[in-house]
C-alpha cells in the first residue's frame, strides 16, 4: 500500500523569543503579565488542505444526500468530514469484489455506476453499501468510463465504445479504434472527448463538434464546457456556441452548484471562474491551488472546491478575507487601528504612528520624532472629530489631522501606561495599567475624574465602559468593578468566572462582559446575570458593528447576534491572533493581528443548513451504513451512532446534541453517540448538529430503537393479559349481578310469602277462634268461617289487598277499605273524616292511608278487636289522626324493641313529617293510636 500523504501548507510568522524575554525583564511585574497575555505566535491563513487519502484517486462525485465519493486504485471512499469509509476487497467490514475503479457516475435511486479496471461494470447502492454486477458483453473487463443516457449504459473500453441497452440487455459496439478521454451527458446529448476533438452521439454515430485536442470537459443540464489548449468553449444543446481565449492549459472544470457558472484550474494551480451565459470571467473567493496536475474538480453544496491531484485531494474553501502583511521592526508586532477621516491609521507597538494608503504604509517620521520612546508603544487609538487620541506607554497623546501635529494631552500625571480608550458623551474613559481609570472631557479639555481610591481592589484597568445611569464598569483581572459617579462609591460585580475580563460592551441596556477563556457573560444594567454564551472560548475584544457584535477570540473571529446570541465563526480566521478592536472603513472591516492587518467585507453571509446524518450505525459489533430502524433483544446490546454534518468547509469543530422521546437535549462528546442499558420499549432519537461556522443546522437526523420485551411481557402477551383481566372482571361482574338479582328476587318472594302467608295464617287462626266462640251461638256461621279458612290455606293467594290509593283520593279509598276489612276479617270499621282534601297533597294522603292500612291490619291480625274507628280532623294547624278499637290491639305499639313491619312503616312515615305517635288504653275495654302532624308547610307547598 502506498504511503498516505498529508501536506498541510502553513506559513508561520514568529518573533525571537529570546529577545522578547530580554525585553520583558526590563519591564515591571504588572507589565510583564499584561504583555504575556497578548503574546502568541502569529499564523497566516491556510485556505487549502490536502486530505489524508491515496494520491491515486481518479474520480469524484457528490451524491443526492451530499456525501462525497472518491474512487481510485484503493477502492471507493465515502467522505463525511469526520470519518472516511473505504469499500474495497481488503476491508472486511465494507467489502467490494474489486479495488481499482476508474470512474463514478450518478444513477437514480441512490445508486452509483462504477467502471473498474478488471471487473467490468457494477452498480453500487450508497444507502446500503451493496454492489451488483452488470452483465455486459465486452471484449475486455477493463472499463475507463461509464455513463447512463437514454435507457442505456455507454462504456469506454480501451479502443472501443459500447452501448448496453437496459431493456434488451444487449451490448453493441458504436465505434472501434477510438481513444476516449472522457464521457459527459447533458439532458439532450452525450459528448465524448479525445485528442482529436469533441464528439457528439447522434443516432448511435459519433459526430465531431470541435476538432481541437480537448484537455478538460464538464456539463450542466443543457451545456457542455470543454477546454482546448487556447480556448474555452460553451456549447448549448440547442447548438448555440461561444468561446473564450485562455492563456494556460486547463486541467479540470467544475460547475457551480447554485449559479450558471464554472470554475477551472490551470497548469499553475490558478483557479478562475467564468459565466456560462455571458462567456466572461468573474471574480471569486477561492485561493489558488498548488502547481500540481489536477485530474478532476467539483464544487460541493457547501461551496468547497475538491481537486483530485497527483498529490492527493485538495479542498479549497471560499474566503472573503484579505490579509495585509505588515511586520514592524519591533519586539512584539502588536498593531492598533483607527479610522480618521476615512483613512486607516496604524499604531505600532514600538514604531509609533503610520497610515495605510493602498498597499503602502506611510510612516509619520516627523510625528513619531515628537513622541517619546515610550509613547511610540501604542496600545489603543480612538478617532474624535479631526483628532486621533493615542493610548501609549507614556500616557495619552493627541494627533491633530488639521495641523499634522502631535502633543501630549495636558492633565496631571499624564505619563502612565494606558491600555484602552473608550468614549461616551464627549468624554474619554482611559484604562491604565497601574493607576486606575481616568475621565477626560473633550469639550473642556480637562480631566474631570481620576477613579483611584482605597475601595478598589486593584489599580489595573483593562477596559472602561460608561453607562447613561451614571455607572462606570471597569474590567479587571479579578472581575468587574462598578463605580457610580453620583455616590462616588465602588461595588464589585460577582462574575462567576475566575478568568480575566478583557472587554466590555453595552447594547440595548445589556452589558456584554468578555472573558479570557470562559466566554461572554451578559448582564442587565442592574447587574443581574441574564445569560452566559460561548463557554470555554477565550475572547480579547468585542465591539458593535451594524447591529452585530464582532468578537476577536482564540481561535478566530466571531460574529454574535445580540438578540438571540447565535455565534458564527468567520471562515479562515482561526489562525490569527488579533491585537486590536475591529474597525470599519469604506464598507470593510479591518482588524490588526501579530502578522499585519486583516480585511473583511462588511457583508451578511447566508446561513448554510448542512445536512445531518447518522453516517454509520454499529449494533453489538455489526456495522450498518447510514441508519435504519434498530431492533435489539436486550438492554445489554451496545448501539454506536456515528453522526456527521455535511459541511466540508474549514472551520470550528462541529457540535452535536440529541434528545430521546422529546426529552431534554444532551451534548454528544465528539461525533459518536453510544447507547446501552436501554430498557424494553421504543425510543425515538432526534439529533442536531452545527455547520463549520458553529451555526445549528435546521436539518436533523433521526433514529428509532426498538428494545425487545421478555417473552412474558411482549406487546402481544400484554394484549392477551388485558383481554383475560377484562374477561375475568366481566364474568365476575356478571356473576355478582346474577347473584344480586337472585337475592333480590328471593327477598321479594320471601317478603310476599311472609306477608301473604303470614296474614293468611293469622287470619285463619283468628277465624278458628271466632268459630269456636260461635259454635254454640250460631253453628252455621261458625261453619262458614271454618270453610273460609280452609280455602285460604288451600290456595296460593295473590296480594290483592288495597294497600295504596291507586291514584284515587283518600276520601274515596277509605270507604272501600272499610268494606274490604269487614268482608275479609268480619270486623266493623267506621271512619269520621273532618278535613278538606284540598289542604293535603297527594303524597300526604298516600302516607296517611298507608298508616291507616298498616295500623288496622296489624291490629286485627295481632289482637281481638271487633270494632274499629278512624277519626281525622284539623286543629290549630295540625292534623290529628286517631285509630281506636274495642280491645287492647294498640297497646303493643309502645314497645320499641319487639315490633312488626306495620309498626316500622308507621314510624318511618311519622319521622318523615316530624309527627308524634302516641297510644292510649281506655278505662273500659279498648285502646287508641293517636298521630299528630303539621299541615301548614303542606299548604304552603301546595300554594307554591
Query: What structural class should be given to the helix and strand makeup?
Result: alpha+beta
Number of domains: 6
The largest β sheet comes out as: 5 strands, mixed
The residue fraction in helices comes out at: 10-25%
Strand order of the largest sheet: 61-67-66-63-64
Rg, please? Answer: 53 Å
Task: Note the overall shape.
Answer: elongated
CATH-defined architecture of the largest domain: 7 Propeller
| Corresponding CATH superfamily of the largest domain | YVTN repeat-like/Quinoprotein amine dehydrogenase
CATH topology of the largest domain: Methylamine Dehydrogenase, Chain H
- What is the CATH first-level class name of the largest domain? Mainly Beta
Unreliable runs, pLDDT <50, ≥5 residues?
1-52
Tell how many strands the DSSP assignment holds.
72
Note the gap between the termini. 110 Å
- Sheet-strand content, in percent, reads 35-45%
Number of helices: 9
Q: Mean of residue pLDDT?
A: 86
What this model shows, in words?
This protein is α+β, with helices and mostly antiparallel strands and 944 residues long. It has six domains: 12-48, no CATH class; 51-180, 7 Propeller (Methylamine Dehydrogenase, Chain H); 215-318, YVTN repeat-like/Quinoprotein amine dehydrogenase (Methylamine Dehydrogenase, Chain H, 7 Propeller); 322-601, Methylamine Dehydrogenase, Chain H; 612-708, Sandwich (Immunoglobulin-like); 802-943, 2-Layer Sandwich (Heat Shock Protein 90). It has nine helices and 72 strands. It has a five-stranded mixed β-sheet, with no helix packed on it. Strands 68-69-70-72-71 form a five-stranded mixed β-sheet. Strand 32 and strand 33 (343-348) form a beta hairpin. Helix 4 runs antiparallel to helix 5 and helix 6 (810-825) runs parallel beside helix 7. The longest helix has 60 residues, at 715-774. It is elongated, with a radius of gyration of 53 Å. The protein starts with 11 loop residues before the first strand and ends with a helix. Residues 1-52 have low confidence and may be disordered.
Amino acid at each position: 500500500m502506498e504511503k498516505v500523504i498529508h501536506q498541510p501548507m502553513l506559513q508561520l510568522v514568529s518573533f525571537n523569543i529570546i529577545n522578547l524575554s530580554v525585553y520583558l525583564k526590563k519591564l515591571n511585574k504588572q507589565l510583564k503579565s499584561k504583555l504575556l497575555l497578548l503574546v502568541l505566535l502569529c499564523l497566516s491563513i491556510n485556505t487549502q488542505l490536502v486530505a489524508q487519502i491515496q494520491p491515486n484517486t481518479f474520480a469524484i462525485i457528490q451524491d443526492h444526500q451530499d456525501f462525497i465519493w472518491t474512487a481510485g486504485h484503493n477502492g471507493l471512499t465515502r467522505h463525511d468530514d469526520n470519518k472516511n469509509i473505504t469499500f474495497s476487497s481488503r476491508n472486511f467490514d465494507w467489502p467490494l469484489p474489486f479495488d481499482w475503479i476508474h470512474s463514478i457516475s450518478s444513477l437514480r435511486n441512490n445508486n452509483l455506476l462504477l467502471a473498474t479496471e478488471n471487473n467490468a461494470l457494477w452498480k453500487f447502492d450508497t444507502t446500503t453499501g451493496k454492489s451488483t454486477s452488470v452483465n455486459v458483453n465486452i471484449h475486455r473487463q477493463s472499463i475507463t468510463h461509464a455513463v447512463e443516457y437514454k435507457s442505456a449504459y455507454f462504456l469506454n473500453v480501451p479502443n472501443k465504445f459500447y452501448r448496453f441497452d437496459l431493456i434488451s440487455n444487449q451490448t453493441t459496439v458504436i465505434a472501434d479504434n477510438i481513444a476516449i478521454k472522457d464521457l459527459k451527458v447533458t439532458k439532450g446529448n452525450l459528448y465524448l472527448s479525445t485528442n482529436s476533438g469533441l464528439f457528439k452521439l447522434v443516432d448511435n454515430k459519433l459526430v465531431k463538434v470541435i476538432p481541437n485536442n480537448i484537455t478538460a470537459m464538464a456539463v450542466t443540464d443543457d451545456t457542455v464546457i470543454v477546454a482546448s489548449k487556447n480556448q474555452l468553449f460553451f456549447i448549448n444543446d440547442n447548438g448555440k456556441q461561444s468561446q473564450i481565449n485562455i492563456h494556460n492549459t486547463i486541467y479540470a472544470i467544475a460547475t457551480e452548484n447554485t449559479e450558471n457558472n464554472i470554475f477551472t484550474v490551470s497548469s499553475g494551480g490558478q483557479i478562475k471562474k467564468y459565466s456560462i451565459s455571458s462567456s466572461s470571467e468573474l471574480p471569486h473567493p477561492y485561493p489558488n491551488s498548488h502547481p500540481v496536475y489536477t485530474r478532476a474538480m467539483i464544487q460541493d453544496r457547501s461551496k468547497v472546491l475538491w481537486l483530485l491531484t497527483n498529490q492527493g485531494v485538495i479542498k479549497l474553501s471560499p474566503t472573503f478575507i484579505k490579509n495585509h502583511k505588515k511586520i514592524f521592526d519591533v519586539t512584539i508586532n502588536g498593531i492598533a487601528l483607527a479610522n480618521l477621516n476615512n483613512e486607516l491609521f496604524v499604531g505600532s507597538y514600538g514604531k509609533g504612528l503610520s497610515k495605510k494608503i493602498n498597499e503602502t504604509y506611510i510612516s509619520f517620521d516627523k510625528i513619531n520624532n515628537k513622541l517619546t520612546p515610550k509613547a511610540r508603544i501604542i496600545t489603543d487609538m480612538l478617532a474624535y472629530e479631526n483628532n486621533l487620541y493615542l493610548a501609549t506607554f507614556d500616557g495619552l497623546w493627541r494627533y491633530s489631522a488639521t495641523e499634522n501635529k502631535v502633543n501630549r494631552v495636558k492633565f496631571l500625571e499624564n505619563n502612565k501606561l494606558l491600555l484602552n480608550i473608550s468614549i461616551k458623551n464627549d468624554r474619554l474613559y482611559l484604562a491604565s495599567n497601574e493607576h486606575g481609570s481616568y475621565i477626560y472631557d473633550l469639550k473642556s479639555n480637562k480631566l474631570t475624574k481620576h477613579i483611584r481610591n482605597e475601595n478598589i481592589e486593584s489599580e489595573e484597568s483593562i477596559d472602561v465602559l460608561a453607562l447613561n445611569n451614571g455607572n462606570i464598569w471597569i474590567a479587571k483581572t479579578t472581575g468587574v468593578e462598578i463605580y457610580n459617579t453620583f455616590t462616588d462609591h465602588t461595588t464589585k460585580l460577582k462574575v462567576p468566572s475566575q478568568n480575566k475580563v478583557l472587554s466590555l460592551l453595552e447594547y440595548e441596556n445589556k452589558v456584554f462582559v468578555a472573558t479570557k477563556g470562559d466566554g461572554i457573560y451578559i448582564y442587565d444594567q442592574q447587574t443581574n446575570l441574564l445569560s452566559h454564551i460561548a463557554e470555554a472560548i477565550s475572547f480579547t475584544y468585542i465591539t458593535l458593528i451594524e447591529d452585530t457584535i464582532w468578537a476577536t477570540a482564540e481561535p478566530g473571529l466571531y460574529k454574535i447576534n445580540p438578540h438571540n446570541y447565535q455565534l458564527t465563526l468567520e471562515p479562515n480566521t482561526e489562525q490569527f491572533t488579533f491585537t486590536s478592536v475591529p474597525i470599519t472603513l469604506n464598507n470593510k472591516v479591518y482588524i490588526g493581528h501579530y502578522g499585519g492587518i486583516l480585511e473583511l467585507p462588511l457583508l451578511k453571509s447566508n446561513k448554510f443548513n448542512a445536512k445531518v446524518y447518522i453516517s454509520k450505525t454499529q449494533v453489538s459489533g455489526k456495522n450498518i451504513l447510514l441508519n435504519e430502524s434498530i431492533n435489539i433483544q436486550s438492554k445489554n446490546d451496545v448501539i454506536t451512532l456515528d453522526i456527521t454534518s455535511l459541511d466540508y468547509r474549514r472551520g470550528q469543530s462541529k457540535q452535536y446534541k440529541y434528545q430521546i422521546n422529546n426529552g431534554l437535549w444532551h451534548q454528544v462528546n465528539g461525533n459518536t453517540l453510544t447507547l446501552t442499558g436501554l430498557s424494553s420499549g421504543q425510543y425515538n432519537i432526534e439529533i442536531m448538529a452545527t455547520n463549520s461556522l458553529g451555526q445549528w443546522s435546521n436539518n436533523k437526523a433521526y433514529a428509532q430503537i426498538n428494545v425487545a420485551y421478555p417473552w412474558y411481557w411482549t406487546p402481544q402477551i400484554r394484549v392477551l393479559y388485558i383481554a383475560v383481566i377484562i374477561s375475568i372482571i366481566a364474568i365476575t361482574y356478571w356473576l355478582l349481578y346474577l347473584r344480586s338479582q337472585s337475592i333480590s328476587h328471593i327477598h321479594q318472594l320471601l317478603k310476599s310469602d311472609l306477608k301473604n302467608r303470614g296474614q293468611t295464617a293469622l287470619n285463619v287462626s283468628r277465624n278458628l277462634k271466632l268459630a269456636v266462640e260461635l259454635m254454640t251461638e250460631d253453628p252455621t256461621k261458625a261453619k262458614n268461617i271454618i270453610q273460609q279458612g280452609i280455602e285460604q290455606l288451600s290456595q296460593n293467594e295473590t296480594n290483592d289487598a288495597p294497600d295504596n290509593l291507586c291514584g284515587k283520593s283518600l276520601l274515596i279509598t277509605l270507604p272501600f277499605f272499610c268494606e274490604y276489612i269487614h268482608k275479609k276479617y268480619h270486623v266493623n270499621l267506621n271512619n269520621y273524616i273532618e278535613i278538606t282534601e284540598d289542604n293535603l297533597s297527594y303524597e300526604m294522603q298516600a302516607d296517611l292511608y298507608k298508616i291507616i292500612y298498616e295500623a288496622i291490619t296489624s291490629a286485627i291480625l295481632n289482637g281481638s278487636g271487633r270494632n274499629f274507628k278512624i277519626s281525622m280532623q284539623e286543629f290549630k294547624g295540625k292534623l290529628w289522626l286517631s285509630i281506636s278499637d274495642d280491645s287492647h290491639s294498640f297497646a303493643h305499639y309502645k314497645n320499641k324493641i319487639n315490633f312488626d313491619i306495620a309498626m316500622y312503616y308507621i314510624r318511618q312515615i311519622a319521622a318523615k313529617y316530624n309527627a308524634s305517635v302516641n297510644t292510649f288504653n281506655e278505662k273500659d275495654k279498648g285502646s287508641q293510636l293517636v298521630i299528630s302532624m303539621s299541615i301548614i308547610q303542606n299548604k304552603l307547598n301546595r300554594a307554591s
